[in-house]
Automatic annotation (TrEMBL):
It is found in: Membrane. The keyword Membrane applies. It comes from Stenotrophomonas nitritireducens. Residues 474-607 form the GGDEF domain. This is Diguanylate cyclase.
Length: 877
């Protein structure tokens, strides 16, 4: 018996040591979480600071675009109207003004130039700036030059704002975000052009203190002190912001940098006070200590059991009361909801602090009445009474004091003073559920319009197909809606205007569809509509309503009004066997047909020859896009042979396009070129051929650098591109290829389609030294009439005349006439499709300069692609 107190002491020491170890682990974990929170707040601070600056730059860019578009005479009233439309003061805290300064002085002479503010909005309170010369503020002038030369937003160093100086010379510190203003026209592309076309400067002025405080408002400034310095500013103006003086021994100092507009701000953040919730630590310390003391006391009580039985009974009764008090204290500290109800009547007898806070005063109320679903509450209580316990399989709702709560909980039976009780323990999961629902919504909806996104739309469409197949449901309709000329609005007014237009149109369409119909944004300016339970007449009527509501919508932006229209492809699903891929392809095909028929109309998909052809072309267009992405386009060369006796042996070739299929087969261009032209892929294909050929010019033909001339075909779509000539000349200069070695072939039908545009492109390229060939000459209806207006160097006779040269006198006459006219114009004449050597003598007799065809040379793969294939095969062997 004498050793029992010693055992009690040992148990107490061991229990306290275990409690200390657990408390230390909890303390370290909580400290790690606090440090992680501080780092995340510090990481978020630069992005939060960049947001108002980027917003100011966006407003300036909109104003710059207005000036470039050649806005009518600008005055203070018009400038005030622009400023009100931008509403910058609503989303840029600390916003002071937006201003325009007119440049005076010679272009390129910055030293003698002045920039005096001409228009300031709002003018009230800022009158002192009108006529003020920016050159008097070095910080502003340096930002102005950077913005002008780079055409990018520039941020000034901090300086004292002129309009806030008082009589003693003190005032608020501020910054400006600047963009240049150029004379009307296209956006200048080079530094010299920007300086030459400089009209003045645009600026947004912002007070630093309110801007920074609002940007960091919330958890950052609640928990952290911040000091911000501009690393490139003079020492007197380097400090941007300081919420408190930086202590000499700042604990957990976080240093971050924010870069914007050519300047770098250094952010130093340190905690205001220790952060963290130490409730779990207190629970471990109190609970562990209590349990250790109880065990020690129990052993100690055993030592005195025989000697002091009466006193032991009294003390045990006292300790029981203490234990119950401790148990209640522990329950009070638990974050979970703990409730105890009398099992005899089901009424609540005890609720801990968390339960009282969340549920209000529930003492005396039925436990099952807490459940929002009364049937669920009754079932839970009944199951506990019968089986002894009940666990929720999923979250359920209880009636809270302020609002309903989502909880996960369980019920169990226990005896207290020989009376059965129900113990309910539940954890509040409302915040987690709200976050889950928010994430689920974001995953299925478009952020801009709030409509369903493409993934959710396809899921619903797939489910509609399953429901119809399983239950034989009523037919439904799928509509593919594509806005007409939407790119024009983006180009004229910017993507912000385009986004606002999409929001406006999505709201208009919502008002014209039925309850239960699903409208989704599929991407860009494309929408989808799923209408259930409609026949053909109802589907046609609904599609026409949607088209008409889009046509009636008027969109206003920065003083301009736009009207848009839509092409709608309609598919009625009234028969089984359709797949999701089929429906989407049919709707896309019908929408494309609507655009071909003139836009702003509804086209119903029909399973006919034209639809089948369009589907095939769409498939080939898709395969061509994948081939370009996976670098599976191929180039072959075919030699062009001179025919005149004693001609110098030179090497001239024409490049021919091929495509390697996914199975490794080589596909001729006739299979996919029609689809490429219909779906607008030819400009990208032509540019790939030009870029690839010029980059590997010395490795196209086995003769290497001795290759005299390489001919490349250009499509009509490429010739309609205003930037084609610049692209070709830039590729020539970048790769160092003499322009005389490049021959660009255009077909006669393309040339006569837009003669003036083609002539402009040809003249630019010929002036640089490139040769121009007129391909397939003679195939058109007005060949000879247009020939006199086209400045070309080579005429290639269409192969249909060359092939019949020995049998058809008319073909001979046409070849003879083309040759004579070509020579009279100083052009070389080339015969295509020479399939037999006997034709060569006839061509020489008629004076044709060169020939091309299988009889002279069969196309071969260009050397560099041939070598790449051999290297790959060597690695795979």
């Amino acid at each position: 018996m004498s050793t029992t107190p010693l055992w009690g002491l040992l148990v107490l020491v061991a229990g306290l040591a275990l409690t200390a170890w657990l408390a230390l682990g909890e303390w370290k974990g909580e400290r790690g979480r606090v440090q992680s929170l501080q780092r995340s707040l510090a990481d978020a601070a630069p992005a939060r600071l960049r947001e108002p600056l980027a917003g100011a730059a966006l407003g300036l860019r909109a104003m710059q675009t207005v000036l470039l578009a050649g806005t009518p005479q600008l005055d203070q009233g018009t400038f005030d109207s622009y400023q009100r439309n931008l509403r910058s003061q609503e989303w840029i805290h600390g916003y002071v003004l937006i201003a325009f300064a007119q440049r005076h002085g010679d272009a390129g002479n910055d030293g003698g130039a002045t920039y005096r503010y001409q228009y300031v909005a709002p003018l009230e309170g800022n009158e002192v700036l009108v006529g003020f010369d920016i050159a008097r503020q070095p910080e502003n002038m340096e930002a102005l030059r950077r913005a002008r030369d780079a055409d990018a937003p520039a941020l000034s160093a901090p300086f004292q704002l002129l309009q806030f100086r008082d009589r003693q010379g003190t005032g608020d510190m501020g910054i400006t975000v600047r963009l240049p203003a150029y004379t009307p026209g296209a956006m200048p592309a080079t530094v010299d052009e920007r300086r030459a076309r400089e009209l003045g400067a645009l600026a947004v002025s912002v007070r630093l203190e309110p801007m920074v405080r609002q940007a960091l408002y919330g958890r950052i400034l609640d928990h952290m002190d911040v000091e911000i310095r501009d690393l490139g500013a003079l020492p007197a103006h380097a400090r941007v912001f300081a919420s408190a003086p930086l202590p000499a021994d700042a604990a957990s100092l976080q240093v971050r940098r924010m870069e914007f507009g050519g300047r770098t701000w250094e952010l130093r953040l340190w905690p205001r006070a220790p952060m963290g919730a130490w409730g779990q630590l207190r629970l471990i310390v109190i609970g562990g200590s209590s349990i250790s003391v109880l065990l020690a006391l129990f052993l100690w009580s055993q030592a005195t059991l025989h000697r002091r039985a009466v006193e032991l009974a009294r003390r045990m009764s006292a300790r029981f009361g203490e234990s119950e008090a401790r148990f209640q204290a522990l329950n009070e500290m638990l974050p979970a909801l703990v409730l105890v109800a009398d099992a005899r009547d089901g009424r609540i007898r005890y609720a801990n602090r968390a339960a009282r806070t969340q549920l209000g005063n529930v003492a005396g109320e039925p436990l099952e009445g807490l459940f929002a679903d009364a049937a669920q509450g009754r079932a839970a209580v009944a199951a506990t009474l019968v089986e002894g316990n009940w666990n929720s399989q999923e979250a359920f709702v209880v009636r809270g004091a302020d609002a309903a709560l989502w909880v996960n909980g369980s019920l169990a039976m226990l005896d207290m003073d020989h009376v059965p009780h129900l113990l309910m323990v539940a954890g509040d999961t409302s915040a987690q559920r709200e976050m889950t629902e928010r994430l689920r919504y974001q995953a299925t909806h478009d952020e801009l319009t709030g409509l369903c996104n493409r993934r959710e739309f396809e899921r619903c469409l797939r489910q509609a197909l399953l429901d119809r197949g399983d239950a034989g449901a009523a037919s439904f309709a799928l509509m593919y809606i594509d806005l007409d000329q939407f790119k024009l609005i983006n180009d004229l007014s910017g993507h912000t205007a385009g986004d606002q237009l999409l929001v406006q149109l999505s709201q208009a369409m919502r008002r014209h569809i039925r309850d239960g119909d699903l409208l989704a944004r599929l991407g860009g300016d494309e929408f989808g509509l799923l209408a259930s339970g409609v026949d053909k007449a109802q589907a046609d009527q609904l599609a026409e309503q949607v088209r008409a509501c889009i046509e009636r919508s008027t969109f206003c932006w920065l003083g301009r009004s736009y009207t848009v229209s839509a092409s709608i492809g309609l598919v009625l699903v009234d028969r089984p066997g359709c797949t999701l891929k089929d429906l989407l392809a049919w709707a896309d095909s019908a929408c494309y047909q609507a655009k071909e028929d003139g836009r702003n109309r509804v086209c119903v998909y029909r399973d006919d020859a034209d639809a089948t052809r369009r589907m095939g072309e769409m498939e080939w267009a898709s395969r061509l896009r994948r081939a370009m992405e996976q670098d599976r386009l191929l180039l072959d060369y075919q030699e062009i042979v001179p025919l005149s006796a004693g001609a110098n042996p030179v090497t001239r070739v024409e490049l021919l396009l091929r495509m390697r299929g996914e199975d490794g087969s080589v596909i001729a261009p006739g299979v996919f070129m029609v689809a490429a032209e219909r779906y607008g892929l030819m400009p990208a294909v032509d540019r790939w051929v030009i870029r690839t050929a010029l980059a590997n010019f010395a490795n196209l033909h086995p003769c290497g650098n001795r290759l005299q001339n390489c001919a490349i075909n250009l499509s009509g779509a490429s010739l309609e591109d205003e930037g084609l000539a610049d692209f070709i000349l830039d590729a020539i200069a970048r790769n160092g290829v003499p322009p005389q070695r490049l021959c660009l072939e255009i077909t006669e039908t393309v040339a006569v389609r837009d003669l003036l545009r083609v002539v402009r492109v040809i003249e630019r390229l010929r002036a640089a030294g490139c040769r121009i060939a007129l391909d397939d000459f003679g195939a058109g209806m007005a060949s000879f009439g247009y020939l006199k207006n086209l400045p070309v160097d080579v005429i290639k006779i269409d192969g249909s005349f060359v092939r019949d040269l020995g049998r058809d006198p008319m073909s001979r006459t046409i070849v003879d006439a083309v040759t004579r006219i070509g020579h009279q114009r100083g052009a070389k004449v080339v015969a295509e499709w020479v399939d037999d050597l006997g034709t060569l003598d006839l061509l020489r007799e008629l004076g044709v300069d060169s020939a091309q065809g299988f009889a002279l040379h069969r196309p071969q793969r260009v050397v560099f692609q041939r070598e790449n294939l051999e290297r790959r095969e060597g690695r795979d062997a």
